[in-house]
Design brief:
The structure holds 2 protein chains of 2 kinds. By secondary structure, chain A is α/β, with parallel strands linked by helices. Chain A has 8 helices and 7 strands. Chain B has 17 helices and 18 strands. The chains are: A alpha/beta, B alpha/beta.
């Protein structure tokens, strides 16, 4: 069983850069762990720390006036490798949702498998969220999974978002794909026998 | 009768069930596994007290973390060594085939799959690695998965995936001088952008694609992920059958004949509908190079980097960030720029044909003094062929040295890291910030462009050279 996801209201961390790839989310040299823990510490490692390991103050995660469990990212977030470590890093840092106008396929799937909700919004809505946060870092966004809506609480504007009903069910109830597949073993054997 | 695409025929034949309002439950014929994306999957099996459902369908090879020198010695980095040891132990504990270090079948997983005949037309193939798309070149549905899905395949031989949309990318005509499969890939990605095929499974078609060798087709399909596609594939034909025949795990005798008969039914039916069709003219493709920090930022080798007003408003921040990382100026040419490193290898260009091409060009020349060159075969089988064909001698005479197989400088997980600020002309697939080492500046190219750069010491148009 995993943590259930229903409704989330939070301040946000803005990352208005497009095409953020998985090598930026978690550089390859941090992929050597054999457990799922600890990846959050190295999320966006090379943007967060310089070569000597000192914090780069200008990077948004190092700016204490920003906080929250929602990451707002520019178009095409998570492109590149299939490493689930990217989703573990995003989840491990404490994000419950990532909002962007476009996600790379594998990242989206990996995020869902780790109870991080990828929310696709229109480019216009995305830019409005960026502006609202820039105006006031404590502005919040609400993600309502049962109703599939996202609201920019600064403007009161909402948008519907898509999620496939099966994945929605998984997130709402905190079960995962492996639980499902294990319940289907006999069907798989039967299918193998008749192919 | 319903007209079907190559992709539909294979996908539909592997659907065990369709979940109402959800993904398809897809049966997987072949599962490849490496040391980076698998440890947590095995840990998951142990936690749930599960065994591997179909151990004969999984093949493992450590590749990312391994050094490319002195493989007979223990791996120096303890964390890398632990990841490789963990794979060896997991494979043994769960009864899986594994080709460990120095095994004659060891190599980059996407190189050894096809060369040993594991990868066959009509199969569904997955691996916890985005470049699984390579195997699509054989006429298979092959795509990368995450570690949770690796666990699913180990536990049930199935994944849950929504059926992607279908796109056909056709390239018609004859490829020009010094234009290779890699240039076709970089050209297509530069036109499609890195997200342009997201949500789609791509079939490559057309006369220019048909004319590619099997190794070339693998290079192209390998890079389909770089435009966001779930995977890329090419219909099997005589080139495919010729390549596969006689390989160790390919069907033999009567079984072979029967298999070929089935495979011949796979190509897309005339009149089948794609969700999207894109066509390119082979004559427009030239030798390519990337100037930025994603594979979509490619251009003809003799072109100028775009200026900021040519970039749409939303992309300008990334564009500037990217050029500042590369230390290039908008509007300038790359021709004539001095370089520091050349990397020949990876699952994109680490096969025998790539070494033949490289050797053909450097033959009779000398490596430039300012260049450090890493030539890394994709597998021990490739290495063996290099020696058998005498390519090693040509390379040696030109001042190049061959290293041992592995992923090497394709990604900064092993000892082969490009130092910060250095320019690397690389035949690999990704030029992301830090991909080849923190601060490393990567330009993606074909083996021909790499070879010419290695002997001239700078970015050189191969058409002026060859
Ligand atoms: S060669 Fe590079 S892209 Fe290919 S599997 Fe290894 S690390 Fe990945």
């Amino acid at each position: 069983m995993r943590e259930k996801f229903e409704k989330l209201t939070s301040t946000c961390i803005p990352l208005p850069i497009e095409n953020v790839d998985t090598d930026q989310i978690i550089p390859a040299r941090f992929l050597k762990a054999t457990t799922r823990e600890g990846f959050g510490d190295n999320l966006f490692r090379d943007w967060r720390y310089d070569k000597e390991g000192n914090k780069i103050d200008s990077f948004v995660l190092n700016n204490p006036t920003y906080s929250g469990s929602i990451l707002i990212a520019g178009k095409n977030f998570g492109s590149g490798s299939s490493r689930e470590h990217a989703a573990w890093a995003v989840a491990g840092y404490g994000f419950r949702a990532v909002v962007s106008s476009f996600f790379a396929d594998i990242f989206k799937n990996n995020a869902l498998n780790n109870c991080v909700l990828p929310v696709v919004v229109s480019e216009k809505f995305l830019q409005e969220i960026f502006s609202s946060i820039e105006e006031n870092h404590s502005n919040t966004v609400t993600i309502d999974l049962p109703n599939q809506t996202i609201t920019n609480n600064a403007t009161g504007c909402s948008e519907k978002f898509e999620i496939n009903p099966y994945k929605k069910d998984c997130l709402l109830n905190g079960f995962d794909d492996i639980d499902y597949l294990l319940s289907k073993k006999e069907d798989i054997e039967a299918w193998e026998n008749k192919r | 009768m319903e007209k079907k695409t190559l992709f539909d025929k294979i996908w539909d034949a592997h659907v065990v069930s369709k979940i109402e309002g959800g993904p398809n439950q897809l049966y997987i014929d072949r599962h490849y596994l490496h040391e980076v994306t698998s440890p947590q999957a095995f840990a998951g099996l142990r936690e749930r007290n599960l065994s591997v459902f179909r151990p004969d369908r999984t093949t493992c090879s450590p590749d990312h973390n391994i050094p490319t020198l002195n493989q007979d010695k223990p791996i120096a980095d303890p964390i890398s060594r632990n990841q490789v040891d963990t794979l060896m132990k997991n494979a043994k504990d769960f009864g899986l085939t594994v080709y460990g270090l120095l095994n004659p079948k060891n190599g980059i997983i996407h190189v050894i799959g096809p060369e040993n005949g594991y990868t066959q037309p009509g199969m569904t193939i997955v691996c916890g690695d985005s470049h699984t798309s390579t195997h699509g070149a054989m006429g298979a549905v092959a795509f990368g998965i995450g570690t949770s899905e690796v666990e699913m395949v180990l536990a049930s031989q199935c994944v849950l995936q929504p059926k992607p949309m279908k796109m056909r990318i056709s390239v018609e005509g004859k490829l020009g001088k010094c234009v290779t499969a890699k240039d076709v890939a970089l050209y297509i990605i530069s036109k499609m952008t890195t997200g342009g095929a997201t949500g789609y499974f791509v079939e490559f078609a057309g006369s220019a694609i048909r004319s590619l060798s099997m190794d070339g087709r693998m290079t192209l399909c390998n890079m389909s992920i770089e435009m966001g596609a779930r995977g890329g594939m090419i219909a099997p034909d005589e080139v495919t059958f010729e390549y596969l025949k006689g390989r160790e795990f390919a069907p033999k005798g009567e079984a072979w004949d029967k298999a070929v008969e089935e495979w011949k039914k796979l190509p897309t039916d005339e009149g089948a509908i794609f969700d999207k069709e894109v066509c390119f003219d082979a004559a427009d493709i030239t030798p390519m190079i990337t100037y930025g920090t994603n594979p979509g930022m490619g251009m003809a080798i003799d072109a100028n980097i775009p200026t900021i007003d040519q970039i749409d408003a939303a992309g300008q921040i990334s564009f500037e960030k990217s050029l500042s990382y590369m230390n290039f100026k908008p509007g300038e040419k790359l021709l004539g720029k001095e370089i520091d490193y050349v990397f020949l290898g990876s699952c994109t260009n680490g096969r025998i044909e790539d070494f033949r091409t490289f050797a053909n060009i450097v033959k009779g020349h000398k490596k430039a003094d300012n260049v450090t060159a890493w030539l890394v075969p994709g597998s021990w089988n490739v290495e063996k062929a290099i020696r058998a064909e005498g390519i090693d001698k040509i390379l040696e005479e030109a001042g190049f040295e061959l290293r041992q197989p592995g992923c090497s400088a394709c990604l900064a997980m092993n000892d082969d890291k490009i130092p910060s600020g250095k320019y690397s002309v690389s035949t690999s697939n990704r030029n992301f910030e830090g991909r080849q080492g923190p601060g490393a500046r990567t330009m993606l190219v074909s083996p021909i462009v790499a070879a010419v750069a290695a002997i001239t010491g700078k970015i050189t148009d191969p058409r002026d050279f060859v």
